[in-house]
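User: structure tokens for this one?
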Amino acid sequence: MLLAIVVLMRRYLTDPMRHVIAFVAACILLIQVFSMRWNVVIGGQIFSKSGVGFRESYVPELFGREGIAMALLIFILPFVIMGIFNRFLPLAPNRPEEPGGEDPA
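Assistant:
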């Protein structure tokens, strides 16, 4: 719905407003994907396949192989790698200077 608003109301929205709405839509999508995966993986581990009963409750560890710290590290790692690549292989070229203008400093 948010992306439809961005497309259909294009002439009435400013560029920053469209960017904010698209960013909010992307964040909502990421939360939905995480929630679905959590439901399938953790829910599949808590309920037994035979339907006899529940297993023990799941509490994620802070540190450990499958802990919260490792999940945050895996989440942040692509941004760090992209920053390193951007440092040596810029994604956007530098803007050319305006003709006839010199730096006042």
